[in-house]
């Protein structure tokens, strides 16, 4: 039996993940009590998850519980004992391309796991449930900016399909049980302690391993890919503000884009990352590049409209990609102790 008797608690799933870690750290520093759940799987290097977790363990108002929210009894026990006022569901099986290889993992975590979260909230009635959706629900739309009321009926990856399913499930539970629920369509979060399967992290790893980076645009610069990148501090700020802003409608369900509203061309993004590492290492960094066709499930463009988000909370992400990538590069160089390797070829 897990004994939680806090006056006020926030439950965060995926606490050792990229977003879960940064959000929890912000909440703990602000004095909130945080119960963090994570199964610490090996989808990517677990040592990075442990490093994030180590930075949280020192807070006296933090408690970590290792476990899988796709196991209903486990989650119900946590909810019963913690009685969280707010639940922030960030845990999920991530990755668009990986969903082509291991769809079972996405069904179990993203659909069954989310159903368990909804059931737990129905029974224990926190004041607000927030959950992470994804910009991938918009599919392969060519124009933009993407607005929340646009159709999301044509996902092009199984990952996106699970996130679309989450949104439908959430609205239904909100309607049936009057649960205040907020969905967050996150546009490509990046920054320090980021996910190693994301492009900017992979590019850094390849460079320091002496290997070329792979760009999935077939070298067609005029038909380049664009991404709306969201710096992690901006994302956390938006989530913290949304915590205290549930819908007051008859059906208390709402959904918001969280993105920078400034798509960046892939090759400009690569150039900015090269410049960031050049500055961090005090020498010129140029990536060797291989070009391949776009992968199934990838989309050519993401472009967030932040209008609804700003109207709701008076804030929208705005950190320039150059600033955010410089912070990532500084962290990466320090974390992997690379400053002493400035003479790398």
How would you sum up this structure, described in words?
With 345 residues, this protein is of the alpha/beta class. The chain has a domain at 9-190 and 229-258: Rossmann fold, CATH 3.40.50.720. 41% of the residues lie in helices and 15% in strands. It has 11 helices and 13 strands. The protein has helices at 18-29, 46-57, 72-82, 98-101, 103-124, 158-177, 199-208, 232-243, 266-281, 307-313, 321-335; strands at 9-13, 33-38, 62-66, 86-89, 128-134, 181-186, 189-190, 213-215, 226-227, 230-231, 253-258, 264-265, 289-291. It has a 7-stranded parallel beta sheet with strand order 3-2-1-4-5-6-11, sandwiched between helices. Strands 7-10 form a two-stranded parallel sheet. It is globular. The N and C termini lie far apart (55 Å). The model is unreliable at 1-6 (pLDDT under 50).
């Amino acid at each position: 039996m897990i004994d939680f008797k806090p006056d006020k608690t926030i439950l965060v799933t995926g606490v050792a993940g990229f977003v879960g870690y940064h959000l929890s750290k912000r909440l703990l520093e602000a004095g909130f009590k945080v119960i963090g759940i994570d199964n610490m799987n090996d989808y990517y290097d677990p040592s990075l998850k442990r490093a994030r977790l180590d930075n949280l363990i020192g807070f006296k108002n933090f408690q970590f519980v290792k476990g899988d929210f796709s196991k209903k009894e486990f989650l119900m026990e946590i909810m019963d004992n913690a009685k969280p006022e707010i639940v922030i569901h960030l845990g999920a099986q991530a990755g668009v391309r990986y969903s082509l290889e291991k769809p079972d993992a996405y069904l179990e975590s993203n659909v069954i796991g989310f159903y368990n979260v909804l059931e737990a909230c129905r029974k224990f009635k926190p004041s607000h449930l927030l959950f992470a959706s994804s910009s991938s629900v918009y599919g392969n739309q060519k124009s933009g900016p993407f607005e929340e009321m646009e159709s999301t009926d044509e996902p092009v990856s199984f990952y996106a399909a699970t996130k679309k399913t989450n949104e439908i499930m959430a609205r239904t539970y909100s309607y049936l049980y009057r649960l205040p629920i907020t969905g967050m369509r996150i546009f490509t979060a990046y920054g320090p302690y980021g996910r190693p399967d994301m492009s900017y992290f992979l590019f850094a790893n390849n460079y320091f391993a002496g290997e070329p980076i792979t760009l999935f645009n077939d070298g067609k610069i005029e038909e380049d890919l664009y991404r709306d990148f969201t710096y992690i501090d901006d994302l956390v700020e938006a989530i913290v503000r949304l915590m205290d802003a549930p819908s007051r409608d008859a059906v208390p369900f709402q959904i918001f884009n969280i993105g920078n509203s400034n798509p960046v061309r892939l090759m400009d993004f690569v150039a900015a990352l090269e410049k960031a590492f050049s500055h961090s290492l005090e020498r010129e960094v140029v990536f060797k590049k291989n070009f391949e066709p776009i992968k199934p499930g990838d989309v050519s463009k993401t472009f967030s409209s932040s209008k609804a988000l700003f109207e709701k909370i008076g804030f929208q992400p705005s950190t320039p990609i150059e600033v955010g990538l410089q912070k990532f590069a500084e962290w990466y160089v320090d974390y992997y102790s690379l400053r002493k390797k400035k003479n790398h070829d």
